[in-house]
Amino acid sequence: MNERQRDGGSERPREKLSPSRRLSVSLSPYLWCFGALIAALLLSAAIGAVAIPPLDVARLLLSRVLPLSANVPDTFTTILFDIRLPRTVLVALTGAALSGSGAAYQGLFRNPLADPYLLGIASGAGLGAVSAMAIQWPSTALTFFAVPIAAFIGALLTALLVYSLARVGRTTPISTLLLAGVAVGAFMTSLSTFLMLRSQGELRRAINWMLGGFALGGWSPVVAVLPEIIIGLGVLLLVGRPLNVLQFGDDQARQLGLNVDRVKRIVIVAASLTTAAAVAFSGIIGFVGLAVPHLVRLLWGGDYRRLMPLSIIGGAAGLLLADIIARTALAPQELPLGVITALIGAPFFVWLLRRAKQQVFW
Hints:
By secondary structure, this protein is mainly alpha-helical. It has helices at 19-46, 54-63, 74-109, 121-133, 146-166, 174-198, 203-210, 220-238, 240-246, 250-255, 260-282, 288-300, 304-328, 337-355. It has a single domain (88-355), classed as ABC transporter involved in vitamin B12 uptake, BtuC (Orthogonal Bundle), CATH 1.10.3470.
């Protein structure tokens, strides 16, 4: 029986939302995520060996875009713009890239357990980085970019290798793609371990890189990764509707007029590009691409037109908070960022496995 009002017995009409109310409801998730991102940015730039009040950080940032006087010590300006802000921006870009790629992979594979490392992209980047670390480079300007460039090339070559191995005729089945990613990733990891054992002098550096860290300072890493991340995430933001259609399955998506193989190629290339750019300068940082998109999905639904941008913003804020913990937990010693994300993400992954134990993924 339908619910009725007790006094009159008629059905209670649904409340109609005004246009302004509907707009505020639709913008609410973005406001929450942007608010978290701004707070994380201010805290990340304020916390360090020399504490800078968050209000002074805000004044300094606003003074660069508005005709305002910050009225803060010159040392604060040097510390903020030459040391902390480049790291803060790089961490935010890395979190956005990993989380956006994770959301794309989860939509592509129709599996909430997918993440940017599923196809072995991180393992390929790690092999490239370790290979560059094992070489004695001459002291030139190119030496600074040797390891990141090698990691980037390794990640892209791994993506191409996995995709070529997974193709069956003119199609790319999801199961074959996953198996190829696992196999190639394991092979790349074994080669990385072999090279690390053969190169004792650079072993510590390689381990620190693979645990996730931001040893390269200044604005150069930001300038290097910014174009790749903008292009990759821009493409992923445009495929929200095709990812929604893919959730019905490949056959039904084709019946609805979607070029499934083309969408798969676009998503894989764009997500691999953003992942490789992030890993090249930050090292191996896991669970961001798994946890953040899933939390966004739990809070605001699975529509990829909304899920993708919210995951990107949430990933930037989440990794910034993890970086703050890494810098302050054992200060003045700094923990590798990958250790913090693993400590937080591993229990979440176990909870997700238990929650999904009775479900059948597509």
